[in-house]
Amino acid sequence: MKKTKMLKKNYEFKNVLNRGKYYSGKYIAIFIRKNNKNINFLGIAVSSKSGKAVKRNYVKRIIRENYKNIEEHIKTGYNIVFIWKKQQEIGQACYDYVEKDIQKVFKDADLFLEG
Fold first, then answer.
1. Which range has highest mean pLDDT (42-46, 87-91, 92-96)?
2. Residue ranges in 8-94 assigned as alpha helix (H)
3. Domain holding 70: CATH number?
């Protein structure tokens, strides 16, 4: 069962970015904030300075797919915002690299379920 909904409003993103805890990887940074609900809310932000819309949407799809594959292993009750780092080329956005980066960041944030 899907345990995640998307953040869509600007104030929802700002709330997580201003009050959330920051964790960083090579390609992505994440902000995490507890939401006291039994569901995760996911937001993905890629700056327009990173590339044109086709490339930005490609990165969003890669991040969303990676998150979907590890979703059942992640604790619930958090707002999570992924941010693609501007200094990284979008051409380097390989599925495997982003997958390793997301797993590293989630381990640092202690969001994986025990066991």
1. 42-46
2. 10-19, 53-70
3. 3.30.230.10
